Amino acid sequence: MARAYPAVRRVFLADGDALAAPTNHLLHLLGTLSGAFPSLERVSSYALPANLLKKSVEELRQLRENGLTLLYYGIETGAAELLKRITKGATPEAMVTGLGKAKAAGFMISATVILGLGGQPYWQEHIDGTAELVNQVALDYLSTLQLMIEPSLRAEFTRKFREPFHEQDDRALLLEQMRLIERLNPPAPLVFRSNHASNALALAGTLPQDQLELLSRLELALAGGLHLRPEWLRGY
């Protein structure tokens, strides 16, 4: 099959937990990919918090040196209590440790956070904890998604939060985005995006240099000067 795609430059190791595989297995897989695709430039994978904690820096470095160069990492939130409620399986401290190991091994990291995850009562804790976490790790990319709950899952959110879950509206989510960007002070240049299909407002820039421009666009949107993406055009 590889001969049918000689120009392949990028490969993603599907699906959600590829990095949980034994390091020797992953090294064998990376070697096979390198031999099969002569134009291969990048192999990427999701990385769960537990994966990075279980592997040593040396194991991670071996994977990096053999072609696995980019990790996609779901932070979701940096608020400890919210991480418990969504059963993320990690604390903020553990995520900082794992991400630090990945950076020490030379990986590029693309992380995501979810606006609205704290609902109305906990949005400030959500945003402040997230900014604090991000500011401790030299991420390469950071993207925000907006929380979208399928009707069939609303009862599950109420169960996890042990109280009715009150979602944020678009205006409140823009305020969350503003608070997050205001508080981000990354230790290295950070490419920031909110261009996922779930987002009401698309933003793009590099922090910290574009911080004021991003905040200006948010202020304009809050004042009604920018059109938001209609709900029927948004996706999970």
TrEMBL record:
Pfam families tied to this protein: Radical_SAM
Cofactor: [4Fe-4S] cluster
Alphabetized GO MF terms: catalytic activity; iron-sulfur cluster binding; metal ion binding
Stretches assigned to the Radical SAM core domain: 8-124
Keywords, sorted A to Z: Iron, Iron-sulfur, Metal-binding, S-adenosyl-L-methionine
Gene3D superfamilies named in the record: Aldolase class I
Name of the featured protein: Fe-S oxidoreductase
